[in-house]
TrEMBL record:
Biological process (GO), any one: proteolysis involved in protein catabolic process
Cofactors named for this entry: Zn(2+)
Name of the protein in question: Metalloprotease
Keyword match Methyltransferase: no
Peptidase M48 domain span: 65-247
Gene3D superfamilies cross-referenced by the UniProt entry: Metalloproteases ('zincins'), catalytic domain (3.30.2010.10)
Sequence intervals crossing the membrane: 32-51
Length: 258
């Protein structure tokens, strides 16, 4: 017998070959791949940004060596039960304080100069340090990585949906909505860090008045006005922050200071 293609087909028909369907979890992974890629991209970008920030801070900072501020941070250290709290001077002029991704606390040279000229008191400067300690203690530096990754994935999803109905405008609308979400998350972090700072200032015997008085002069110090609506800002307004501090004091059954 001569074996031909026809004979082989007869012996093993094509319709007898079982075709294994794609499993549901593979299909699910394929559908989710744009979002997973967006999250992965955001994580990589955040880690790259953190690495660049660390290099910048290492190159342009020195440890703070101010006896009066050191005494105040020693009060904080005693209140939280640690040997010492190190603060660094970041050699740039804008007035700001920051908590680095690696947990270090910084105040800028511009902010420190305002303290040296008497525009900011030592206790007000201590409230800034307490606020940045709050960001570290509450895990905000790590949380920002999650927030950044999540909002990036949401932006991709919204852009895909909106672009089906609003070609050309979908991406713009998605970017605007996720920017509002990011601002809201940032304001929540600021409120939490303010509350931590208030509690620490009270426990250290400094009270919350320096924290509130600094907020009242902060716009003038930073040169940033209140032109944007509160819901578009990354930080709460001065009035809202002071109100939240006083509400916390009432909730903690402590009389607000005059």
């Amino acid at each position: 017998m001569v074996i031909t293609q026809g004979n082989l087909t007869h012996l093993w028909p094509r319709n007898r070959i079982a075709r294994k369907p794609a499993t549901p979890h593979i299909l699910g992974m394929l559908k989710l791949s744009p979002f997973l890629l967006a999250i992965g991209y955001a994580l990589v970008m955040y880690m790259l940004s953190a690495w660049r920030t660390k290099r910048e801070l290492d190159a342009k900072s020195t440890e703070l060596a101010d006896p009066r501020l050191k005494r105040l941070t020693d009060h904080f250290a005693g209140a939280v039960g640690v040997p010492a709290i190190k603060v660094h001077i970041y050699e740039i002029e804008p007035v700001n304080g920051l908590a680095a991704p690696d947990g270090r606390i910084f105040i800028t040279r511009g902010f420190y100069n305002r303290y040296r000229t008497g525009e900011v008191t030592a206790e007000e400067m201590a409230s800034v340090i307490a606020h940045e300690l709050g960001h570290v203690a509450l895990g905000h530096t790590r949380k920002r990585m999650i927030d950044f990754s999540g909002t990036n994935a949401i932006r991709i999803a919204l852009a895909a949906v909106f672009s089906r109905f609003l070609p050309g405008l979908g991406v713009v609308l998605a970017n605007a909505l996720t920017a509002l979400l990011a601002s809201k998350l940032s304001r929540n972090d600021e409120y939490e860090a303010d509350a931590y700072a208030s509690a620490l200032m009270l426990k250290a015997g400094l009270g919350t008045e320096p924290q509130k008085s600094l907020f009242r002069k902060l716009n003038a110090l930073t040169g940033v006005g209140g032109g944007l609506p509160a819901w578009m800002m990354s930080h709460p307004s001065t009035e809202d922050r002071i109100r939240a501090i006083e509400e916390n004091e009432a909730r903690w059954k402590l009389a607000p200071e005059d």
